[in-house]
Design goal:
Elements (H helix, E strand, L loop, with lengths): L7 H24 L5 H8 L3 H7 L3 H23 L6 H18 L2 H10 L1 H25 L8 H21 L7 H11 L3 H14 L6
Length: 212
């Protein structure tokens, strides 16, 4: 009786193709949100049938990218949690930990509104929103952040600021590694400018390098 042909190399090749397609999609969709799946297949170095085998349509591809971004966001939240730190430092850790995820998936910002719908966007961002609001509430209690706005409203405003700055990076109007955005967020929350810059500088220097 002949042995079945081992399928592990084929599975490994399929996983490699899928990862390459998603990585290419992140780049190409950032350059051209209307890029076709056929163009993505060519850019990924796979035939059209291979791409459609993984992603039968644009919606399936965007959903996969969204799931990938959601998982990266959850991991960044876990790695960036600093509940024992003062609120201003915890906020800086929060922004600097999440910035690489936002930077990597910033092309999804516009596409999410158009193709995925607001409910899916809310679902993905909900964990980050909860963490940001908790940090801001703690900072307000500590007297570090202003109380002119409820923490949830302040969190929503700072999120909008972050999204706007990510879109500025996407358009080429801004270059940032997250430190400018973290500093601007602290200032908007009520921390004096020099203090905000110093806190972000200290936190950034203590963080490990971001992997490509």
């Amino acid at each position: 009786m002949s042995k079945p042909v081992a399928r592990e190399p084929q599975r490994r090749n399929a996983r490699s193709n899928r990862a390459r397609i998603l990585a290419t999609a992140r780049q190409e969709l950032g350059r051209n949100p209307d890029v076709t799946l056929e163009e993505l297949a060519r850019a990924s170095g796979v035939v059209r049938r291979t791409l459609f085998g993984h992603f039968p349509g644009r919606a399936a591809l965007l959903q996969a990218l969204t799931e990938e971004a959601s998982e990266a966001l959850r991991e960044a939240l876990e790695n960036g949690a600093r509940s024992a730190e003062p609120a201003e430092r915890a906020f800086a850790y929060f922004v600097l930990s999440l910035w690489p995820v936002g930077d990597r998936y910033r092309m999804l910002l516009g596409l999410a509104r158009r193709d995925l719908g607001p409910d899916r966007v809310t679902e993905v961002l909900a964990p980050a929103r909860a963490v940001a609001t908790a940090i801001l509430e703690r900072g307000q209690r500590e007297g570090v952040f202003h109380t002119r706005l409820p923490a949830a409203a302040l969190s929503a405003g700072l999120e909008a600021l972050t999204v706007a700055l990510l879109e500025s990076v996407n358009s080429g109007a801004l270059e940032d590694d997250g430190t400018r955005t973290a500093t601007a967020g602290l200032i908007a929350a009520g921390v004096p400018e020099e203090r905000a810059a110093a806190v972000v500088g200290e936190v950034a220097a203590s963080m490990p390098p971001v992997a490509d």
